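Our preliminary data section would be incomplete without showing what the modeling component actually yields. Below, a chain of 183 amino acids is followed by its predicted structure, encoded as tokens that our downstream tools consume directly.
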Amino acid sequence: MPDTPVNIPLTSDVVLRSLTRDDGPAMAAAYERNRDHLEPWEPARPAAFYTAEYHARQIPVQILERSSGRSEPLVLERGGEIVGRVNLSDIVRGAFCNTHLGYWIDGRLAGRGLMTDAVDAACAHARDALGLHRVQAATLLHNAASQQVLERTGFERIGVAPRYLRIAGSWQDHVLFQRILHD
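Predicted structure:
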């Protein structure tokens, strides 16, 4: 995995960049600001999750995962404020060359095509910089907005996984998607 930090302009004022050690307070603020917006789509979070201290402890782990080639933790930043996340996780090399994609956007910016641009940029990075062949993603069955992002960026549906992830306190079915990065 390259050591060069990711820094991809998406618009004139939003950049997709690598998560840094100093992002703890901004991550906590972003999650707190978007708590209600994200709650139906994410695992149940403990109160500590919304603190800078929590993220200050977790970010070094995520950076270590990046340096070891197992993930690529990214944030969307606008004017010094974190307004979203894109994560390439569980990177597997060898015959698979695959990663899992996860993402969210600040509720104030939803519906503007910004996450579509971020997902597309992350997939290009996975192909060009990380040398991966395939990206997979999963959405809740009723998350039409997320499914549209994936479909607009070249993902195809590959099936449904019953009780795939524990989201909002219960095991929920997910639609599975993949994007092949090399023809």
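Residues 7-180 form a domain with the Aminopeptidase fold (CATH 3.40.630.30). The longest strand covers residues 81-92. Preliminary results of this kind motivate Aim 1 of the renewal.
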